[in-house]
TrEMBL record:
This is DUF4276 family protein. It comes from Glycomyces buryatensis. It comes from the Bacteria. Residues 1-36 are annotated as: Disordered.
Length: 233
């Protein structure tokens, strides 16, 4: 495994070829028309929040080349499904069926929902077991932000110091994954009348997130990194 100290690409300047499949794969060669798996890693995310659709895509655009800048990766646009639907067999089955109709065919289907007040390990186990039952052929993997997606931002809160009206000396809390309302944590430190809004801020925060700091301080973010590294190898 590479060192955690890696050069983080600028998401607005990184070439699409850095994390997308080469042209021959994207255009649909014979293998992709037959539905055969391709050697290029292909990821299809499933998320629960409206803001997370763009935020997860922005995060993966930075995180994948940071983990391995020698690999091409194709990332499908995240598919948003309500949390309560993903926790039910018919809802998860439908989401996985949709993922497996995509071309290029996914080599990894990322299922991501917030833990909220549930144990992330128990919730992840439930979703993994359910996915195996409703669609055993889908190469799914589960990542549960603890307690919510914004906990990853808390883990690297210094990334946003002096931005969005936040204090210049902003520092992460001692245990970022123990905070129940990460959104409220940021709102309390923003100017009055300018609260943190997921649909507005998630993507912007994802573009600025210090990946080293997030991986070092958040267990669930490390889980995301390790799962992606397995797909890249």
């Amino acid at each position: 495994m590479q060192s955690l100290q890696r050069q983080d690409p600028d998401p607005d300047r990184t070439s699409a070829s850095r994390f997308h499949a080469p042209r021959a794969c994207e255009s649909g060669d014979r293998g992709s028309r037959r539905g055969a798996r391709m050697t290029v890693p292909v990821i299809a995310p499933i998320v629960e929040g409206h803001g997370e659709r763009e935020a997860v895509q922005a995060l993966l655009a930075r995180l994948l080349p940071w983990l391995d800048d020698q690999r091409y990766v194709h990332v499908h646009p995240p598919n948003r499904k309500p949390r309560d639907l993903l926790l039910k067999s018919h809802g998860l089955a439908a989401a996985l069926r949709e993922a497996m109709t995509l071309r290029p065919l996914p080599s990894g289907v990322l299922i991501m929902i917030d833990a909220d007040d549930e144990c992330p390990m128990t919730l992840a186990e439930h979703l993994r077991d359910l996915a195996k039952v409703v669609h055993p052929d889908a190469p799914s993997f589960v990542v549960i932000p603890n307690r919510e997606f914004e906990a990853w931002f808390l883990a690297a809160a210094s990334s946003f110091a002096g931005k969005f009206g936040l204090p210049e000396d902003l520092r992460p809390p001692p245990d970022p994954e123990a905070i129940r309302d990460a959104k409220g944590w940021f709102t309390k430190r923003m100017p009055r009348g300018r609260p943190y809004k997921p649909a507005v801020h998630q993507k912007q925060f994802a573009k600025l997130l210090d990946l080293d700091a997030a991986r070092g301080s958040s267990r669930s973010f490390r889980k995301l990194c390790s799962d992606l590294e397995r797909i890249l190898t």
